[in-house]
């Protein structure tokens, strides 16, 4: 997956660079003021952010000018000088109807971010009003044995984020409950390991899109009669199936490569086989299992966007797709907002997993 | 009948052409309450021998008898102190010992077990480190935990596989004394594997050298007739000590030489004599 490689590199850069160190230095709550540290961990990252925004701004302005020139020239060639002058003045006046559609500038993105938040607030207020309005009616309906009326309005941006998080956690839990038990069993038995190996090797590199189609084939048939939300089911199962391989492989490896000394201890103490698994083998492979889970979560989040985009299930992925199809003047900047939100949430999820991993790991330095 | 008896024990790793015979024709008898040391070069098959006795390995041929019965897997009657401590890194000192105690006395109440753990951790002087993880301890402290773990199971025989090999000289001396103390208190049978002749002489009743492998086998035994408790500084002036020490070292050097001369070619040297600068 080319996409995953580039994204991995991006996270790597973020981890090795300014973000981690600044977060760490804030986390330590050092009371002494260390000017060298302050310079390296706060000023330099701030400076790099400013440079990034500056380059972005200049780039988007250059693209804007290119697009505007092209538009004017096209009008000149097709409809003559008058039309060209009209379009030029229209662009300069900032009229929405004739703005060139290209990479949005940082200011535009910030504006869309605020408008998305405002939109969210409006929708929430609307929802609350709706609930209040239908409260009495719903009670009656419930008493009469009917389904209550629910709000069916458009979800806001924040709602989409929450839906995405819900889907990714459902998928992550599915991956966890499938991959860890199978990984442990495979790790314990060399025979099973070699019989499952081909399956793992073949299914591991399969693209999320194909998983989605496979899950779609099965779930579509199975949920034919029920009126449950099949888009959600399809997307979370696909996310789980795409992302579970890292945990599966890591668990199997951790379980099969337990230090021989620990096994000898278990034998000398005459632990039963179940006790051996739970008291010696599992604890000693926990660090590797958690490394796998961390990879699984980040893969799940990455894959989720693509799957939502295709499965038409609500969430950030479909938000991006709908905005792209929408083609409104602020659609592009909303997509960029979504991009940042996706990136930041992915980063936070990874940090959370790293913290948990460090908490369970008995070798504290191994985690990073 | 001896307490522990090895009869014509052979151990071969691998099969067919690639097999190597590590131990061949090992015969050993240890009486109850005796402290025996086996001294040998590194790589001579000492650990294999220990694992045969504690039941982690099975002999390819021959018999290992413990109290007249063939050894069949590990047993709580034979406590093992491993060369590299082998503590579980995710458990604290107390938990490491508790795990062993719980296995050795499955019917006892929790409180009794905890008392026992405390007693043995205290015995090796690690009560302050009771809740620490092995990673936070020094090498000597870790080995003491291993000692406490082995002894807390109340084994009838203690098998020690180079228990002090990785420690510095000072810690080593202290732990030697501690192990001797515990041994003399409970009069358990003990088998010590070591590569240090002095350690063997200081601690054991009998020393048996292990000729280096492949095909390692036991050499003639040396009795140490020095009254206990032994004192390290006095030991140096003891004529008996010097005699035994020299005899063992000479024996070991001899087999070392033999091993070398097997593989070495004879080179003819030019016949030259030093020049005289005087004349």
Automatic annotation (TrEMBL), chain A:
Keywords: Cell membrane, Membrane, Transmembrane, Transmembrane helix, Transport. It comes from the Bacteria. It is a multi-pass membrane protein. InterPro entries: MetI-like (IPR000515), MetI-like_sf (IPR035906). The chain crosses the membrane at residues 38-59, 167-186, 198-219, 231-253, 286-311, 331-349. Residues 161-353 form the ABC transmembrane type-1 domain. Gene3D superfamilies: MetI-like. It is found in: Cell membrane. One of its GO terms (cellular component) is plasma membrane. Its main location: membrane. GO terms for biological process: transmembrane transport. Pfam families: BPD_transp_1. Belongs to the binding-protein-dependent transport system permease family. This is ABC transporter permease. It comes from Christiangramia crocea.
UniProtKB/TrEMBL annotation, chain B:
PROSITE patterns: ABC_TRANSPORTER_1, ABC_TRANSPORTER_2. Keywords: ATP-binding, Nucleotide-binding, Transport. It comes from the Bacteria. Pfam families: ABC_tran. GO terms for molecular function: ATP binding; ATP hydrolysis activity. Residues 4-237 form the ABC transporter domain. The keyword Metal-binding does not apply. Gene3D superfamilies: P-loop containing nucleotide triphosphate hydrolases (3.40.50.300). InterPro entries: AAA+_ATPase, ABC_transporter-like_ATP-bd, ABC_transporter-like_CS, ABC_transporter_ATP-bind, P-loop_NTPase. This is ABC transporter ATP-binding protein.
């Amino acid at each position: 997956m080319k996409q995953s490689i580039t994204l991995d590199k991006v996270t790597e850069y973020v981890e090795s660079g300014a973000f981690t160190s600044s977060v760490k230095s804030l986390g330590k709550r050092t009371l002494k003021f260390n000017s060298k540290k302050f310079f390296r961990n706060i000023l330099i990252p701030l400076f790099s952010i400013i440079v990034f925004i500056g380059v972005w701004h200049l780039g988007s302005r250059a693209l804007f000018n290119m697009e505007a020139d092209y538009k004017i020239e096209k009008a000149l060639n097709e409809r003559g000088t008058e039309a060209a002058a009209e379009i030029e003045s229209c662009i300069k006046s900032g009229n929405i109807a004739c703005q060139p559609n290209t990479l949005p500038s940082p200011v535009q993105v910030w504006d869309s971010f605020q408008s998305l938040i405002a939109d969210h607030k409006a929708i929430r207020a609307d929802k609350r009003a709706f609930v209040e309005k239908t409260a009495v009616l719903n009670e009656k309906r419930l008493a009469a044995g009917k389904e209550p009326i629910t709000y069916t309005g458009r979800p806001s941006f924040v709602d989409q984020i929450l839906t995405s998080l819900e889907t990714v956690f459902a998928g992550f839990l599915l991956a966890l409950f499938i991959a860890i038990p199978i990984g442990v069993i495979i790790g314990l038995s060399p025979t099973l390991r070699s019989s499952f190996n081909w399956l793992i090797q073949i299914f591991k590199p399969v693209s999320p899109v194909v998983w989605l189609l496979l899950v779609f084939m099965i779930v579509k048939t199975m949920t034919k009669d029920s009126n449950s939300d099949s888009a959600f089911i399809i997307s979370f199962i696909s996310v789980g199936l795409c992302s579970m391989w890292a945990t599966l492989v890591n668990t199997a490896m951790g379980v099969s490569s337990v230090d021989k000394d620990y096994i000898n201890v278990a034998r000398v103490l005459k632990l039963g086989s179940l006790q051996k698994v739970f008291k010696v083998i599992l604890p000693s492979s926990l660090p590797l299992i958690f490394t796998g889970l961390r990879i699984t979560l980040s893969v799940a989040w990455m894959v989720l966007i693509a799957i939502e985009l295709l499965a038409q299930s609500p969430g950030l992925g479909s938000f991006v797709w709908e905005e792209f199809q929408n083609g409104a003047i602020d659609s592009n900047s909303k997509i960029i907002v979504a991009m940042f939100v996706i990136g930041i949430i992915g980063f936070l999820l990874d940090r959370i997993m790293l913290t948990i991993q460090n908490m369970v790991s008995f070798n504290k330095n191994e985690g990073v | 009948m001896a307490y522990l008896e090895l009869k014509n024990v052979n151990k071969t790793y691998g099969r067919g052409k690639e097999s190597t015979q590590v131990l061949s024709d090992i015969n050993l008898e240890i009486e109850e309450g005796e402290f025996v040391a086996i001294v040998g070069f590194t790589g001579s098959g000492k650990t294999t021998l220990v694992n045969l006795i504690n039941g982690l390995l099975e002999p390819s041929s021959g018999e290992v008898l413990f109290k007249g019965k063939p050894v069949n897997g590990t047993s709580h009657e034979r406590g093992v102190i491993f060369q590299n401590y082998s503590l579980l890194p995710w458990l604290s000192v107390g938990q490491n010992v508790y795990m062993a105690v719980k296995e050795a006395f499955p019917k006892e109440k929790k409180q009794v077990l905890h008392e026992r753990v405390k007693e043995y951790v205290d015995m090796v002087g690690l009560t302050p480190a009771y809740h620490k993880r092995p990673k936070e301890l020094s090498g000597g402290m870790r080995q003491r935990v291993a000692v406490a773990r082995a002894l807390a199971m109340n084994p009838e025989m203690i098998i020690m596989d180079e228990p002090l090999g990785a420690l510095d000289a000072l810690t080593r001396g202290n732990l030697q004394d501690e192990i001797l103390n515990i041994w003399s208190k409970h009069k358990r049978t003990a088998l010590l594997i070591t590569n240090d002749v002095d350690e063997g002489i200081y601690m054991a009743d009998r020393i048996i050298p292990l000729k280096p492998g492949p095909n390692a086998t036991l050499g003639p035994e040396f009795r140490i007739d020095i009254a206990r408790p032994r004192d390290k500084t006095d030991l140096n002036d003891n004529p008996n000590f010097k005699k035994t020490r020299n005899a063992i070292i000479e024996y070991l050097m001899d087999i070392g030489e033999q091993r070398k001369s097997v593989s070495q070619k004879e080179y003819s040297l030019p016949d030259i004599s030093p020049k005289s600068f005087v004349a």
